[in-house]
Design a protein that fits this description.
- By secondary structure, this protein is an alpha/beta fold.
- It folds into two domains: 44 residues, no CATH class; 100 residues, K homology (KH) domain (GMP Synthetase, Chain A, domain 3), CATH 3.30.300.20.
- The protein has three helices and seven strands, in the order βββαββααββ.
- Strands 4, 5, 6 and 7 form a four-stranded mixed sheet that branches. Strands 1-2-3 form a three-stranded antiparallel sheet, with no helix packed on it.
- A hairpin with a 4-residue loop joins strand 2 and strand 3.
- Helix 1 crosses helix 2.
- The longest helix is centred in the middle third of the chain and has 23 residues.
- 17% of the residues are buried.
Amino acid sequence: MVQHDFKVQTTWQGGRNEVGEVIGDVINEQISIPSSLEGTGIGTNPDELLVSAASSCYIISLAATLERAGYKDISITQQSIGNAVFENAKFKMTSITHYPEIKVADNDKDNLEKRLPKLLKIADNNCMISNSIKNNVIVKIEPTVK
């Protein structure tokens, strides 16, 4: 078994309408409650970070899967949308949908469209974040090939 630790440090001072900070190996960002939830909206927030983690993990996994499948000159642009609900006095992320737009060489397009459902599943199964949130958050993929 291979194990790797990912470390971040967070700081916060004051009540709910203050601003904190999250610092990792690369990330150094202010955090607060989003303005849509009546917070200050300064910097990023845990919800955005969760969707960002899922999106960045999936796009990297998809790129690696396509590369291993023999596709060259890959370009992927992806929008990801997290859906959260407030029920039973709790907020919960219910789903994250990825909308990857995949561009490959013209001579690979038809072949990719045939193989895509299987490759999307492989990419999702290889994504650490997808594997970590399964059974709690539904992850959907709605691709476009160009």
